[in-house]
Amino acid sequence: MAQRISRAKQNIKAAGGRFAMPSDVERAERLNAVMHVLYLIFNEGYTASSGDALNRVDLSNEAIRLARLLHALLPEDAEASALLALMLLTDARRAARTGALGEVIPLDEQDRSLWDRKAIAEGTALVERGLAGGRIGAYGAQAAIAAIHDEAPTAESTDWQQILGYYDLLNEMSDNPMVTLNRAVAVAMVHGPARGLALLDELATDERITGHYRLDAVRGHLLERSGDRDGAIRHFTAAAERTTSTPEQNYLRAKVARLAAR
After folding, report:
1. How far apart (Å, rounded) are the C-alpha atoms in residues 60 and 79?
2. Rounded to 10 degrees, what is the CA torsion of 107, 108, 114, 116?
3. Residue 41: is its pLDDT beyond 80?
4. What number of other Cβ atoms are within 10 A of residue 249's Cβ?
5. Which one, of 120, 9, 5, 140, lies nearest residue 78 by Cα?
6. What spatial distance separates the first Cα and last Cα of the chain, rounded to whole Å?
7. Which residues, at least 6 apart from 75, have a Cβ–Cβ distance to it below 8 Å?
8. Count of CB atoms within 10 A of residue 193's CB?
9. Are 190 and 160 contacting, i.e. CB atoms less than 8 angstroms apart?
10. What is the structure's pLDDT at 253?
11. How far is the C-alpha of 166 from the C-alpha of 95, rounded, in Å?
12. CA distances (Å), 81 to each of 20, 113, 214, in order?
């Protein structure tokens, strides 16, 4: 290892490289890259993209540990604080997301007494501090949405109007099809499933998300809410065929079976 380090130093010296503090622009770019990687690690841990388990706790816990370290190093950085808040508020629901057999339990059916209230309190405090600062970024908006969900005592009491406002803000900040997909759900909850389905029709032309199982899953959900049982079955079936996550496949197929039995 010492020899490798020595050779690396010699190569850097020969190439004319030097170590120096980055400019403000470079620092911001590097910090954004670090936060994005942590965000992706957490998301993969919270909902694994493939395999037999819904969660990969090792990944989500490591992402939270590193986000805490980043927040400790940069306590005044609003987005670093918001990223930690988002992870805490999301991970707080982990114990309620699966049943005894590992089956997926959707947010509106979860036993909220299983949610980690300590993590929710910590995450909410970070969100409130960020909002008080008068500046909000993408992680801040997502953390605020997570806080609204976590603070609602029941699914029915969720403030979807406020959630939609934050998704509108996120939509203006970035051109992200997943944000648009989640916004369609919020629109449907506020204005009815027909409005949400119309947004999905527009989104379906976006090549970045065309064929993604979540597009079919959300469409199936909104069609079910609108009373279109056959359409819901068709899209839940398509979503089950496209996802590589076994728990999500089982959940979607169970949805199809329940709808078919009606």
Report:
1. 18
2. 50
3. yes
4. 17
5. 140
6. 66
7. 81
8. 22
9. yes
10. 97
11. 26
12. 26, 26, 29
- Given a contact cutoff of 8 angstroms between Cβ atoms, the answer to whether 164 and 185 are in contact is no
Domain boundaries, given as residue ranges, for the chain:
27-158
Amino acid at 178: M
Distant-in-sequence, close-in-space partners of 195: CB < 8 Å, separation ≥ 6:
187, 188
d(CA 186, CA 89): 19
pTM over 0.70, yes/no: yes
Place of tokens 């909902």: 47
By the 8 A CB rule, do 68 and 38 touch? Answer: no
Quick one: three-class SS letters along the chain?
CHHHHHHHHHHHHHCCCCCCCCCHHHHHHHHHHHHHHHHHHHHHHHCCCEECCCCCHHHHHHHHHHHHHHHHHCCCCHHHHHHHHHHHHHHCCHHHCECCCCCECCHHHCCHHHCCHHHHHHHHHHHHHHHHCCCCCHHHHHHHHHHHHHHCCCCCCCCHHHHHHHHHHHHHHCCCHHHHHHHHHHHHHHHCHHHHHHHHHHHCCCCCCCCCHHHHHHHHHHHHHHCCHHHHHHHHHHHHHHCEEHHHHHHHHHHHHHHHCC
In this predicted structure, what is the pLDDT of residue 24?
A: 85
Tokens of 159: 């403030």
* Structure tokens given for 73: 């190093």
- Rounded to whole angstroms, the Cα distance separating 104 from 97 reads 6
What pLDDT does 257 receive?
97
